[in-house]
Write a structure and sequence with these properties.
356 residues, TIM Barrel, alpha/beta, 8-stranded parallel barrel, 44% helix
Length: 356
């Protein structure tokens, strides 16, 4: 089993720490260069709109810069919100330009979006996002063939469309889709996309979600489709120390940007065994137990051991973690990458390779 290890970058600032927007972009690109030097495999840019912390609204543009900053890494979106790009053929052109800039290293990660305010700000109907997403996937697939094509949909139309420049490698580009619900997973399989999973799902539940995806792929006769997993990886002298070191940054990410009330998170009540809505004032939220159920934290040896235990259960192609949380200094981020590159990656790669 071979897993590629990568970084996710959101280019957010932490307003509480007085971080400038341009500093976040500059230092994130420097971090990508360090990740490339240290032997990480991929860099991914994510997308949201109208956020006070400057969350990256243009991951495809960011990917062009990342392709130059990290010349040996795969470059992807984790994920781009396809319905917000105006027209899918334009999105196909932008992605193909990045593929050409990078020498054929692009990974396409797409989602339909879940925040109504983002669609309202562009004048788009939030209720049509699923249809827009499916038509986007249709048009991207046709564009990547490299031939002229027509398409007539309910939302988008193409007349004599031709993608130029085409991707470096003929045929479809590597495609990843975020798909938490069963209907979304069925759609992802229909488009023969890999599954990319967000950081907040419990590891135990993730096992069931991936099995559901694989079962759907078998049902549709799609063969074996790949999986990618996004997590947090927090390095410290212990789990408690790792939490303490990262608390100002994690609090911003998961109490502001991804607050449970905003993302619709749930949890299993230990007293009743029922799954219930999760709120930010629940003592369990962002506790060590909460993090251990989802993430990898502690010393490099502890992180490596947990990865060796869990990653084979998911049959992963990519393991992706947040390389620089909002407000984190570049020195802190680089030190963490160096600790992982020295004490985690070689151990995990060797162990997983021996199981292949």
């Amino acid at each position: 089993m071979s897993v590629k290890f990568g970084l996710s970058l959101s280019f957010q600032t932490n307003p509480g720490l007085n971080e400038a927007w341009d500093t976040s972009y500059r230092e994130s690109l420097e971090l990508a260069s360090e990740a490339d030097r240290l032997g990480f495999d991929s860099i991914w840019a994510s997308e949201h709109h109208g956020e006070a912390d400057g969350y990256c609204p243009s991951p495809v543009v960011a990917c062009a810069a990342l392709a130059v900053a990290a010349p040996h890494c795969r470059i992807g979106q984790g994920v781009a919100l396809a319905p917000l790009y105006g027209h899918p053929l334009r999105l196909a052109e932008d992605l193909s330009v990045v593929d050409n800039i990078s020498g054929g290293r692009i990974e396409i990660g797409l989602g339909q979006g879940y925040r109504p305010a983002e669609f309202e700000s562009f004048g788009w109907n939030f209720k049509t996002r699923t249809r827009a997403f499916e038509e986007s996937l249709d048009i991207l697939g046709l564009a990547w063939r490299g031939e002229r094509f027509d398409y007539e949909g309910r939302i988008y139309n193409v007349k004599g469309g031709l993608l130029r420049p085409p991707p470096i490698k003929p045929g479809p580009l590597p495609l990843w889709v975020g798909a938490a619900a069963p209907a979304a997973r069925a759609r992802a399989v229909r488009y023969r996309a890999g599954l990319i999973v967000a950081p907040l799902i419990e590891l135990q539940h993730l096992t069931r979600q991936i099995k559901s995806y694989d079962d759907e792929a078998e049902r549709q006769g799609a063969g074996s489709l790949p999986h990618s997993l996004m997590r947090e990886v927090l390095v410290g002298d212990s789990a408690a120390d790792a939490i303490k070191r990262h608390k100002p940054y994690i609090d911003h990410v998961y109490r502001v940007q991804y607050a449970p009330e905003r993302t619709g998170q749930t949890y299993i009540d230990p007293a009743t065994g029922e799954r219930k809505p999760l709120t930010g004032d629940n003592p369990m939220y962002l506790s060590e137990a909460f993090m251990q159920d989802r993430w990898f934290l502690g010393t490099p040896a502890e992180i490596a051991a947990k990865m060796i235990e869990w990653l084979p259960r998911f049959s992963l192609t990519h393991f992706i973690f947040q390389g620089r949380q909002p407000g984190m200094t570049l020195r802190h981020a680089v030190d963490s990458l160096e600790a992982l590159a020295k004490g985690v990656l070689p151990v995990v790669r060797a162990k997983l390779s021996s199981r292949a």
